[in-house]
Amino acid sequence: MKKLGLGGHVTCVDPWLPYFDSEKETGRHYDNMNRAAKSGLIYQLFRHNVSSSGFGKTILAKRGKSCAILPKLQAQSFDIVYLDGSHVLEDVLFDLREAKRLIRSGGIVCGDDLELQLHERNLADVGAAAGTGKDYIPAGANGLCYHPGVTLAVGTELGPVGVWDGFWAIQRSGEQWIPVPLDMSRSTLPRHVASAVIRQEGEMPGYHLISSGRRYFGLAKDLGPLDIAIEMLQEDDLPPLIFSGATLEEVRQKIDRSLGMLTVKMVKDRDLDLYPTPVLVGSHRGFNLVRFKTDCYGLRQSLGPVDASIGNDQIEAQYAREDAVRGDSLESVKAQIDAIEVQRAYDWLVMRLQNLLEQAPRSDKAES
Question: Is residue 203 part of a domain?
């Protein structure tokens, strides 16, 4: 607004509290976000960013749930409404209906996390998926995932919208709604944002190939959907899960060397003969290492005896991700265990730091 010589304010509505259902969303990143919000660190970071930006008088924060705050705002008083909140169907529907009430003619309602539009999926399938309350689910065997609550809510309330890599927008014109076309050739990104953009460069057997800034990465598909796996990006290699390099060819060569001389099929055929029943083959950082048929498992020793022959679905259902991991090789399992234990150590340090901050005396001057 400043560059365009425009006045106005940015109103931010957020409770800055945990909102993911921990019983439905068991991924570590959901737990991390909930704990960060509960500790108050996210709200503190928001206040710091606003203060550091120099736009403290332009950005207005209204702390509370959207269902309590939005109805109090004046109708048709906003030029842009951007939605990035809960992905639960009922919550998204409420936010969209309020956005339609708040936006003036000529204004734009927009948001993110719309990987698939409703007309691109079977309505019954999307409805069933949204009804589970799950945040983010696979759309099929192609590895694509989407937020069913967002897809169903946007599709039923607004219909087709303009979409670019999950971001979406639609413009109000009187009582009509018009999808917004966006000429990406004219768009620019701030330098600090552009340096963190993730681009998919291709695939290799068992790996996603991506780039971020001036680095290239190979991420093992064992890490899960690409949207989740990129949260583990790091500069150093973590074989055989993560490889990095200055060029795409360097990453390809590292993956080739990791795969070795045996093809995946040869290894699996051999393992079917060697491990027809679960066999304890070692331990690593408090985990038992178990081989069974073509799979390798890392099972936390504190769990006691675990029967790996019950099947992968049952193991995933009965045990948390940080207590039971699976991979195609012992090296893969060990790397996953290392990542889990490093994360646990980091979480402990963050908690310890937060406790120290809470115990430290605070002066009135520091508080102001």
Answer: yes
79-88, 218-227, 313-322, 336-345: lowest mean pLDDT where?
Answer: 218-227
Distances (CA, A) of 56 to 18, 48, 367: 25, 10, 17
> Do 90 and 134 reside in the same domain of the chain?
yes
Q: First CA to last CA across the chain, in angstroms? A: 28
3-state secondary structure at position 261: coil
Whether 196 and 319 map to the same domain: the answer is: no
Q: Which amino acid makes up residue 171? A: Q
Residues 150 and 57 in one domain: yes
Instruction: State the pLDDT at residue 195.
Output: 62
CA separation for the pair 110, 38 (Å, rounded): 27
Interval 213-266: pLDDT, tens: 788 999 888 776 676 667 667 677 888 888 999 999 999 999 888 876 444 555
Domain of residue 331, residue span: 268-352
Phi (first) and psi of residue 188, to 5 degrees: -135, 155
Rg of the chain over CA atoms, in angstroms? 24
Task: Return d(Cα 107, Cα 156) in angstroms, integer.
Answer: 20
Final residue in a domain of this structure, among 221, 236, 259: 259
Interatomic CA distance for residues 161 and 171, integer angstroms: 9
In this prediction, residue 53 carries a pLDDT of: 84
**Number of domains within the chain:** 3
Domain check: are 144 and 97 in the same one? yes
Plot region of 172 (φ>0 → left; ψ -120 to 50 → alpha; else → beta): beta
Inter-residue contact 81 to 25 (CB < 8 Å): no
- 97-121 pLDDT, tens digit per residue, is 999 999 999 999 999 999 999 999 9
Mean pLDDT over 188-212 rounds to: 78
Angle at 209 between CA 207 and CA 215, to 5 degrees: 135
Alpha-carbon separation of residue 342 from 191, 293, 335, 339, 362 (angstroms)? 30, 29, 10, 5, 32
Kindly state the tokens that stand for 153: 């809510």
30 shares its domain with 146: yes
